[in-house]
Amino acid sequence: MSIDHAQSQDPATAKLAAQIAVDQPTLIGTVRRSSARICKYAGLLEAELGTYRPLVGYLNDAIGHVQARTGKEIEDELFAGLLDRLGVTDVDLALERVAEARPHG
Question: Looking at the domain assignment, is residue 43 inside a domain?
Fold first, then answer.
């Protein structure tokens, strides 16, 4: 999804940005550049998550197959260790940090 930035450049919006620039001359441009970088990285992250999510689902299915084949339940601690080893726990923490970083949620 994309926002039509031309629509948000009505005279009132431009005037408000100019008024902010009187006291903070670099703020508007800095926020604009930061927003563009975040959107770029979010797009890359979104694409990777599209691959990652099914893989985690397959991993959960694989655990079920191992349990069925061996007749032994995989302990939560062992499964957590596997998630740590594969970086899944790190991904979960990173996604939480991203969610918490939103200035207005």
Answer: no
**Number of domains, the chain:** 1
Write out pLDDT tens, residues 17-62. Answer: 999 999 999 999 999 999 999 999 999 999 999 999 999 999 999 9
Three-state SS across the chain?
A: CCCCCCHHHCHHHHHHHHHHHHHCCCHHHHHHHHHHHHHHHHHHHHHHHHHHHHHHHHHHHHHHHHHHHHCCCCCHHHHHHHHHHHCHHHHHHHHHHHHHCCCCC
What is the extent of the structural domain holding 88? 50-105
pLDDT at residue 103, as a whole number: 82
Assigned domain for 29 exists: no
